[in-house]
Structure formats: C-alpha cells, structure tokens
Amino acid sequence: MALDRLFSLQGKIALVTGGSRGIGLIIARGFVAAGVKTYISSRKASACEAAAAELSQTGSCIALACDLGDTAQIRKLAGEIKAREKRLDILVNNAGATWAQPIDQYTEDGWDKVMNLNLKATFLLTQALLPLLRQAATEDDPARIVNIGSIDGLLQPSYESYAYSASKAAVHHLTHNLAKHLAKDNINVNAIAPGPFETKMLAPVLAVKRKQMEESVPRRRLGLDDDMIGAAIFFCARASAYITGTVLPVDGGITAAAYTAMETDI
Predict the structure, then answer these.
(1) What is the pLDDT of residues 124-150, one digit of tens each?
(2) Choosing from 39, 106, 164, 259, which is the catalytic residue?
(3) Is 164 a catalytic residue?
(4) CATH number for the domain that contains residue 14
(5) pTM value?
(6) Rounded (10°) CA dihedral 186, 27, 51, 62
(7) How many domains does the chain have?
C-alpha cells in the first residue's frame, strides 16, 4: 500500500469541538490542510466564525456556534450536522474547561461546569452523532472518534484542578469503554493526552513559569502544532485502522519520566 494512502484524509468529513482556539484549532487547521471538510464548534460565535474564515483560506471549514455545557445545544449541534451531512467520518471531542481553587474553597459550580463540558458533553455528543458515524464506517476504514484528554488525567497535577484532572481521567476511561462497545460498528475510539502546548488555557502559567515548564519536559520544549496534527491525523487515517481504545500522551516524555525521582542504585 502506498504511504500517501495510509495517511490520506482527503474527502473526509469531521467535527472538531472547541475548534476556535488551542488544541482544537490546531487539529482543525491540520484537517483542513489535509483535505477534510471540517466543522468547528465553540461557545463564542464570533471566535468560531473568525477561525473558520481563517481556515477556509486553505480548504473547507464551517463554523457552528454551540455551548456544549448545555444539553439542549448539544442536541442542536448534532441536528445541524445531520441536516447538512449524510455521514461523519471523524468526531474530535475537544471542547473543555478547567477550574483551579484550593480545596477548602473549591466551588460546586466550578466542579459542575468542568464535569458537564469535559465529560458529560463528550458522551452525549458522541451518542447523538452515532448514526452519522455508523454511516461513514467500513471494515476497511472505520469511522473515528478522538477524545482529547490530558496528562493531568494520567498524573497528579501540581495545581489544585480537582475537577479537571478527574474529568480527563474519566475521558480516558470512557475512551476505553466506547472503543470496546463500538468496535462492532467499525468505529475506532482513541484519546490524545496532551502535555504543555502554547494555548490560551495554559497562558497564565506560561506567563510566569515558561522556563520552569520547558525544563520539566524531557524534550525541553513545549509542544508544537505539528506534534498535535501528526497524532490526530494518524488516529484518523488508514494507518491506524487496527488501533482502538488507546490513550496517547503527546507530552515530550513527561509521563514516561514521571517516576524518575524514585530511581535508586539498588
């Protein structure tokens, strides 16, 4: 098989939630450049439309504003896709939020906001779009669901982001569960667990601790756009047709080196 066919996404249709900035925008940019008709959603219509206009300069990108923290809007987004397309090859569940507070002050509202968007919305949108994913799926080339988790769902973060790290660990476990049950429908489900990238979510930390963060990464740098695009394209291309139920850290070696402080000469 030719290598270009192994990694081609030409002609596929994708939805990337939270696609107007950060990891979602990076993945959407890679998809559009690869010939994917890409829908992006985000809570702010103006940001979503601006991102779609930028990406449309190199391919096909359509903005669909949606607050995935609202169950009714999840149904609305799925309905918009169903009204426009007969199939959906790729669903990237990326929309998310974080919240950090000392444990004694950690609010129920913060907990619920993070859990509803990061975990509940991922499940409900996947459920709502299953008919279109099944229409796209074949034994040779499955439909793809890529959930965006985090290394904070694999390790214990320094910051008191209790709901965020718990929600991302749950996203990883949900990925395994969905992969098991959707394999019969020829739908592959995998997750990417990003480490530090140059995103708005991480900007407050980078503003004061960039050097320390870079030095904490074995590769001694933050993630680049190509690092994330490569992982996303691999999970959605023919090259990964036999891979489902995995969580891939894209973190410069952080999780691999997590226990080096415990090494001894024994």
Answers:
(1) 999 999 999 999 999 999 999 999 999
(2) 164
(3) yes
(4) 3.40.50.720
(5) 0.94
(6) -20
(7) 1
